[in-house]
Design brief:
mainly alpha
Length: about 290
């Protein structure tokens, strides 16, 4: 029983991180209808930002906060150069552009930081909490708390603020939103920056546990797509819940079957969802827009 609870705790930790990355992805999809294949690379940027800042003498807490801003600013630059010029073209063009952004960021990280994994030192990494035979590192507790806090704040922002109402209006009908005076271009930029910043923060939180290297984003991007398909494309609550589900599936598979089959089973679940309920298992008819 203790082993089962420990596996569930580990899955929840991983799942909250997936939720944060998938939340950023679903925000971008909801407003821009962009399947952003570079989403995981923004987590990598957040991880390397934390690594660089900690080595420059910043505290880990400050590095995580600054990684949020750095990732957001880089997201703004990427949007200006790679996505905004293609806003009126076919959506497939922006999707292909995102693949180019992914490859560019991976190679840029390899140039500046080398392909080798980098260790990010956190003052919480060497400490753990024990109760009834269950061990949870303080870093994992921090990951869960910060991820849940950011997901909750983002959901509240989208539900109860003027910005959130604008985002939801654009996701439903951008032309009508423009007629009502909503600055669609501005909202698009801000939403993209927020989605990238959330993902960058996930990367900064992740790296003390799993380290950071240039290709870490590839796996995160694939898992994020599984999450958003599971929860329904553009469904914010679905992205949060789907991340938890995928994290639990991975943890239970690794704990009771084999870590070698983790990805196979996760993508097997994706295949079943696409075949039997392509709108997502957490939506009734169609993915709820942000």
């Amino acid at each position: 029983m203790t082993e089962f609870v420990q596996t569930i705790v580990n899955g929840l930790t991983l799942g909250t991180l997936y939720s944060l990355v998938a939340l950023g992805l679903t925000l971008i999809y909801g407003v821009m209808h962009l399947s952003n294949f570079a989403q995981g690379e923004f987590a990598m940027i957040g991880g390397f930002a934390a690594y660089y800042l900690v080595n420059q003498g910043f505290s880990y807490a400050a590095a995580v906060i600054l990684a949020f801003g750095i990732a957001g600013l880089i997201g703004l630059l990427v949007h200006l150069l790679a996505y905004h010029p293609l806003r009126n073209s076919n959506h497939i063009n922006m999707m292909l552009s995102s693949l180019g952004v992914s490859l560019f960021l991976i190679n840029l990280a390899q140039y500046f930081f080398s392909p080798n994994p980098k260790v990010v030192e956190s003052p919480l990494s060497g400490h753990s909490f024990q109760m009834l035979g269950i061990f949870v590192s303080h870093q994992r507790i921090l990951i869960v708390i910060v991820s849940i806090l950011l997901c909750g704040l983002t959901y509240a922002l989208l539900e109860y603020s003027r910005f959130g109402r604008s985002v939801r209006a654009i996701s439903l009908d951008p032309d009508t939103a423009t007629l009502y005076g909503i600055a669609t271009k501005k909202i698009s930029f801000l939403t993209f920056m927020l989605g990238v910043a959330l993902t960058g923060t996930a990367g900064a939180l992740l790296t003390p546990v799993y380290n950071v290297y240039p290709t870490i984003g590839i796996s995160l991007t694939l898992k994020a797509f599984v999450v958003v398909v599971l929860g329904g494309m553009g469904n914010v609550k679905g992205a949060i819940a789907g991340g938890i589900i995928v994290g639990l599936i991975e943890s239970l598979t690794g704990g009771y079957i084999s870590t070698a089959f983790q990805d196979a089973i996760v993508f097997g679940v994706l295949f079943l969802v696409l075949v039997f309920k392509p709108q997502g298992i957490l939506t009734k008819v169609q993915g709820e827009k942000v």
